Amino acid sequence: MEHSKRGLLPMRHGIKLFMKQSPKTDKEHKRMSNIPYASALGSIQYVVQCTRPNVAYALSVTSRYQACAEKAHWDAVKSIRKYLKRTKDMFLIYGGGELILEGYSDASFRSDDNDAKSQSNFVFKLNGGVVA
């Protein structure tokens, strides 16, 4: 990972976003009010639902901060958008042979530093391509 180029993943490894990073001064609030944070998340949500489920986790993390977004949160959203732009010519291939459905799940205990809640998620693949 130390030699990887920035933007090759939808979310940088080890990024920590917190509620306490929210704007504190009127100037910071005004600056963030001019940034289309919610609109960008909506655009990414559309892409996730239609063609790119691989960025769903990064979207879910950044969506938690719509009401209190700060520069660090906006940088994370820009990272997702950069990744989508860089990988726009990639696509899923499901193949024409026998249908093979695979499912995976994962959970983490108290992994959300904001409220100490656990998280879980899943992925289903059809012939090697993610479908859910």
UniProtKB/TrEMBL annotation:
Domain of life the protein comes from: Eukaryota
PANTHER family in the cross-refs: GAG-POL-RELATED RETROTRANSPOSON (PTHR11439), RNA-DIRECTED DNA POLYMERASE (PTHR11439:SF496)
Protein name: Retrovirus-related Pol polyprotein from transposon TNT 1-94
Lineage: Eukaryota, Viridiplantae, Streptophyta, Embryophyta, Tracheophyta
